[in-house]
Specification:
Blueprint lengths: L2 H6 L6 H22 L10 H10 L2 H21 L8 H35 L10 H18 L3 E9 L1 H8 L1 H18 L5 E6 L2 E6 L4 H22 L4 E9 L6 H18 L4 E6 L7
Parallel strand pairs: 4-5
Antiparallel strand pairs: 1-3, 1-4, 2-3
Helix pairs in contact: 2-3, 2-4, 3-4, 3-5, 4-5, 7-8, 8-9
Length: about 290
């Protein structure tokens, strides 16, 4: 199973259900441990529910399952008829087992956090925080397939920061980098959670809006541009934005073709004037360039 699938698995099941499954597994293992007596050890099996809950839940849930597993292990050990030379021995053993469970749970939780962080870093543009081109193409492919299945339109917008080079020359590259970062943050905070924002390169961004028709896209893009213009005007920067927006419902288009169409619209907007938005609606009758 791929790491991506393993990381996304908890999104497919309610987290309380995963924890409940973990507790049931501990009880089942405890019952098996009691039946087999101390002649056959099944102690290693207790780690499975601990790892399961620690990986998908972490935090308090991982601590609770570790304590519960240690208690059940200790109870099963005593119920199996194991005789100790001193009453303190089973208590010591229980503490050692609990320590092992807690260490494993903590380690698994940290490993998952590091993998999630690494995954996010691999998909993110370092300067802007938007997703990079590779991940954008991957997600766009998913949306195209979904659109084909459910017969729903969606929209792609390309926004270019005009005069970025002039800004860098006049105010320095620090100002240009700040503008790119802030523009990305504004887009991410203004757009819907389902929308995907990517930096395609230079001062150019792409926004994928699933299940969005032309009219809705127009309202969203106008709101984004309003916030972007407000930001640069407050800074006194001579910057404008040119935007090309394409809406389609025909799954025969590839993401490369759609980006090309949106970029052509964006370039036409740049030639027309400042802060211009050009729209196009595609259907099965539209020619594929």
């Amino acid at each position: 199973m791929r790491i991506k699938t393993i990381l996304e698995f908890p999104d497919k099941l309610p987290k309380p259900l995963l924890t409940f499954i973990g507790f049931l597994l501990v009880l089942a293992i405890g019952s098996l441990d009691t039946v087999t007596s101390y002649d056959i050890s099944v102690s290693l099996l207790y780690l499975f529910p601990v790892v399961l809950v620690a990986w998908y839940e972490g935090g308090l849930a991982a601590t609770i399952i570790s304590i519960f597993s240690a208690v059940i292990w200790s109870a099963s050990d005593l119920a199996s008829g194991h005789i100790y030379s001193n009453f303190a021995v089973p208590l010591w053993n229980a503490l050692m087992v609990l320590s092992i469970f807690l260490i494993v749970a903590y380690s698994i939780t940290i490993i998952r956090k590091l993998l999630l962080k690494e995954r996010e870093h691999a998909h993110t543009d370092d300067l802007t925080g938007a997703v990079n081109i590779g991940f954008f193409y991957e997600q766009a492919g998913v949306e195209i397939s979904r659109s084909a299945i459910y017969k729903r339109s969606f929209t792609l917008a390309c926004i270019n920061i005009d005069n970025l080079k002039h800004l860098n020359d006049a105010f320095g590259h620090i100002a240009g980098d700040y503008l790119l970062h802030e523009a990305s943050q504004i887009m991410r905070s203004t757009m819907r959670p389902a929308d995907i924002i990517s930096r395609l390169g230079g001062g150019q961004f792409a926004i994928l809006m699933p299940e969005t028709i032309n009219e809705s896209a127009s309202i969203i893009i106008d709101k984004v541009l309003e916030h972007l213009l407000d930001m640069v005007q407050k800074k006194g920067w001579p910057v404008t934005f040119s935007t090309g927006v394409v809406t389609w419902s025909d799954p025969t288009y590839t993401i490369s073709q759609l980006i090309k169409i949106a970029e052509d619209l964006m370039n036409a907007a740049t030639e027309t004037g400042q802060n211009v938005v050009k729209f196009k609606i595609l259907d099965s009758a539209s020619p594929v360039s």
